[in-house]
Design a protein that fits this description.
The chain is α/β, with parallel strands linked by helices. It has 3 domains: 68 residues, no CATH class; 111 residues, Nucleotidyltransferase, domain 5 (2-Layer Sandwich), CATH 3.30.420.40; 156 residues, Nucleotidyltransferase, domain 5, CATH 3.30.420.40. The chain has 11 helices and 16 strands. The longest helix has 25 residues. The radius of gyration is 24 Å and the shape is globular. It starts with a strand and ends with a helix.
């Protein structure tokens, strides 16, 4: 008679699944050595059936309660983030556990060097992990095409990226969905980062420019042609000079690192220098910085009134200023925000850093392919 072990909790089944994934990753056999069709090995045990009140039996029966997709539990998800000067690749489990990270720089003046790096990284990672990725997703700057196969609009940078079909280039049968880098970063933060289980979010990246993405009722907004979420190009000063998208007096010009020399009359060449002076008690620097943060608060207040988010998350290099940024920003938001019945939007730092886009690409590839 077979030995049976009863587990009366869902956690027991979770452990069983983890054991199954562990077996799959050992790469013995997709079903385990010597296992007949229809059996799912879990160590030396097999899920038998569900009993009343959520109990589980483990034994040697050949009819598991659930036949999983063994490719998924055996393989990994792959997210690729194409930046302006480097390619980041991330392999994760379907639960978001990091398995492998690679980053390779490239010369943007060399035609399609970035594409060649992607094509070499994918098989390299798959070889190290012992099998083909269950799914692949890719994030890149620019506006993604409606069919998600390429970047449709990206003028002036990464020549050749526009209309570059990644699914065809990498020779995959499953779609490799391509998405805007900020949209991907929000997808990553929503999956395993700062806004898990949050359905209404504004994401702002503060760096050389100001980027972002928006989630409403659990959906990342794309818009008619992919422009949705470009929060850096909202207008704060209608009489101001135009930015690269022709928006006068934009949020990007008010706080982006691209205008730091102009905003400080040439005294500082980078925002982190200005922040350092503020920390050291420089009054002039503090005044310039507060003006910049006040402009940011004005932009976030306007976005709050239009989109009604639960949380605004802030990432990018300037967000590393920490309390020098978040304390005055909260002060200005407290003074400006439309407060209803005591409800206020939360301002939080992003958590995934420069890997957010790769995480978002990975989970998007997984979900788009229905793996």
């Amino acid at each position: 008679m077979p030995v049976r072990k009863q587990v009366r909790s869902l956690s027991g089944f979770t452990v069983a699944m983890q054991m199954a994934r562990s077996n799959c990753r050992k790469k013995k056999s997709p079903r385990g050595v010597g296992s007949p069709p229809g059996r799912w090995p879990i160590g030396l045990l097999t899920v038998r059936r569900i009993l009343p009140m959520g109990s589980f039996w483990f034994g040697d029966a050949t009819r598991p309660i659930w036949q999983p997709n063994l490719e998924v539990c055996m393989e990994h998800l792959l997210g690729i983030d194409l930046g302006g000067s480097s390619v980041k690749a991330l392999a994760v489990s379907p639960e978001g556990e990091q398995m492998l990270v690679r980053q390779v720089g490239f010369d943007s003046d060399q035609p399609l060097e970035w594409a060649q790096h992607v094509r070499s990284l994918v098989p390299e990672i798959e070889s190290k992990l012992g099998g083909q990725a269950a799914s692949i997703g890719l994030s890149a700057p620019g506006l993604a095409a409606a069919d998600a196969r390429s970047i449709r609009h990206m003028p002036g940078r990464l020549q050749g990226l526009e209309d570059f079909d990644w699914t065809e280039y990498l020779g995959r049968k499953r779609l490799i969905p391509v998405m805007n880098d900020a949209h991907a970063a929000l997808a990553g933060e929503s999956w395993v980062g700062a806004v898990r289980n949050i359905r209404n979010v504004v994401f702002v990246t503060l760096g050389t420019g100001v980027g972002g993405a928006v989630m409403v009722d659990g959906n990342i907004l794309r818009g008619a042609i992919g422009r949705a979420g470009h929060v850096g190009h909202i207008c704060l000063d209608p009489m101001g000079e135009p930015d690269i998208c022709r928006t006068p007096g934009s949020l990007e010009l008010a706080i982006g690192n691209c205008t730091i020399e102009r905003r400080t009359q040439g005294k500082y060449s980078a925002t982190h220098e200005l922040v350092g002076a503020v920390r050291n008690g420089d009054r002039e620097a503090a005044e310039i910085w507060r003006d910049s943060v006040r402009n940011l608060a004005c932009g976030l207040t306007s976005l709050t009134n239009v989109l009604d988010p639960e949380v605004i998350i802030i990432g990018g290099g300037i967000a590393q200023a920490g309390d020098v940024l978040f304390e005055p920003l909260q002060e200005f938001m407290d003074a400006m925000e439309w407060v209803v019945s005591g409800y206020r939007v939360r301002i939080e730092p992003a958590q995934l850093g420069e890997m957010a886009g790769a995480y978002g690409a990975a989970i998007t590839g997984f979900r788009r392919n229905g793996v």
